[in-house]
C-alpha cells in the first residue's frame, strides 16, 4: 500500500478492481481505497471473502461490489477478435483439457494446484 500512498500523495484510490476473487486480493483492493472508494470484484472464486474490519467501511464509507461484467455480445466480439489474431490470450491459458477431465480441472482451479490462470475445456 505504501507505493499507492506515494504515487497518490496519500490520497489512495477511488476504484479498485479485483480480477482474482480470493481473500488476499479483495482485501488488498479494499485497503487501497480512499474515503468513499469502491472495490469491484470481477474475479470468481468459491472462497469466502474477507474485506476487512466492518468499522473501516462505516468510518471511510467504503463499498465492495460484485460484478459479472460480460454479455453474450461481448463473448461474440472476443471470439471474433481471437479468430482474426487481434487478441492474444495464450499467456493466460494454463492448459487445455478434454471434456472428460472437467472435474479434475475444476478441482485444480479450486485448489490452486500449479497456480492456474485459466483452464480451457475442449469438447
UniProtKB/TrEMBL annotation:
Keyword terms, alphabetized: Oxidoreductase
Protein's name in the database: Dehydrogenase
Oxidoreductase found in the keyword field: yes
Superkingdom per UniProt: Bacteria
Domain Alcohol dehydrogenase-like C-terminal: 2-82
Species annotation: Cutibacterium avidum ATCC 25577
Origin organism lineage: Bacteria, Bacillati, Actinomycetota, Actinomycetes, Propionibacteriales
GO molecular function terms noted in the UniProt entry: oxidoreductase activity
Names of required cofactors: Zn(2+)
Family matches, as PANTHER family: L-THREONINE 3-DEHYDROGENASE
Amino acid at each position: 500500500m505504501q507505493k499507492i500512498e506515494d504515487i497518490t500523495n496519500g490520497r489512495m484510490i477511488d476504484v479498485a478492481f479485483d480480477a482474482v476473487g480470493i481473500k488476499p486480493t479483495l482485501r488488498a483492493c479494499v485497503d487501497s481505497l480512499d474515503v468513499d472508494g469502491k472495490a469491484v470484484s470481477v474475479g470468481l472464486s468459491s472462497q469466502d471473502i474477507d474485506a476487512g474490519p466492518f468499522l473501516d467501511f462505516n468510518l471511510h464509507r467504503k463499498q465492495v461490489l460484485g460484478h459479472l461484467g460480460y454479455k453474450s455480445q461481448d463473448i461474440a466480439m472476443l471470439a471474433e477478435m481471437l479468430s482474426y489474431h487481434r487478441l492474444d490470450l495464450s499467456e493466460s491459458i494454463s492448459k487445455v483439457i478434454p471434456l472428460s477431465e472437467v472435474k479434475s480441472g475444476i478441482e485444480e482451479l479450486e485448489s490452486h494446484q500449479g497456480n492456474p490462470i485459466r483452464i480451457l475445456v475442449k469438447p
